[in-house]
Amino acid sequence: MSVSSLEKYLPENALPFLRKWFGEYYIHIKITRGRNSKLGDYRKMPDKSHQITINSTLQPQLFFFVLTHELAHLIAFEQFGRKIFPHGAEWKHTFREMLLESISVYAEDLKPMILKFSRSPKANFMASPELVKYFHIEDFHDESSYIEDLNIGDRFLYRKHTYIIQEKRKINYLCKNLDTGKIYIFKPLARVEKLN
Fold first, then answer.
1. Considering its fold, how many domains does the chain have in total?
2. pTM over cut 0.90
3. What residues make up the domain containing 186?
C-alpha cells in the first residue's frame, strides 16, 4: 500500500510527515477491521521488509497517532539496532521527536494532550486517560462507562460476561467473573456496561 493510499484515513497535512518517515523503507501497511486487543502493530518481516497493521475504524487523528507509534518502532530499530527494548528509551525518544515534529497535524484542543503525552510516551494508548477520553468523546451517548467511574461492589457487563468489582490495586481493578468465578484485572479505562 502506498503512502498516498492512506490519505482517506488521515487528518489533513499528515502525508508529508509520512512520506519523510517512510523514506526508503519497504513497508507493507495492512488496514484491518477494528480489533479490541490493539490499535496497531509493527513487525520486521523475514525478507527485511516491515509490516504495520492498523485498525481502519480509528478517527483520522488517532489513526495518524497510532501509525506514528508503529513507525517509531521501525525507525528506532533501524537506528539503534534490534537489541533495544520495543518500548524502551530509544523508542520513546524516537516517538517523542515524531510527535513534536508533526504536532501541527493535530486539532488545537488535542495539541496540549499530545505535548503532555510526548514528555514520556507510553507503550499503551490506554495508559493516557486524557487521550482515551478525547478519542471516545462520541461514544458517551451509549450505555458504557469507564470502570474507574464505578464503585467497589458494582456489577457490570463486559463481552457478554457479568463481573463484580472486588478491589482496586494501585490503578487497576480486580474483578470477579460471576459466570466462571475467575478473577481478572481491568485497566481503569476499560469500557463496561454498568448493571443496576
1. 2
2. no
3. 142-195
Return the ∠ at Cα 154 (arms to 152 and 160), rounded to 5°: 130
Asked if 112 and 149 sit in the same domain, the reply is: no
**Residue 51: count of CB within 10 angstroms of its CB:** 16
Residue 62: is its pLDDT beyond 50? yes
Element housing 155 (H / E): strand 155-158
Cβ atoms within 10 Å, residue 112: 11
Does 147 lie in the same domain as 129?
A: no
Residue 104 amino acid letter: S
- Joined together, the cell numbers standing for residue 154 give 458494582
- Does 120 share its domain with 155? no
C-alpha–C-alpha distance, residues 40 and 75, integer Å:
16
Q: Which residues 6+ apart lie within 8 Å of 112 measured at CB?
A: none
Same domain, 124 and 147: no
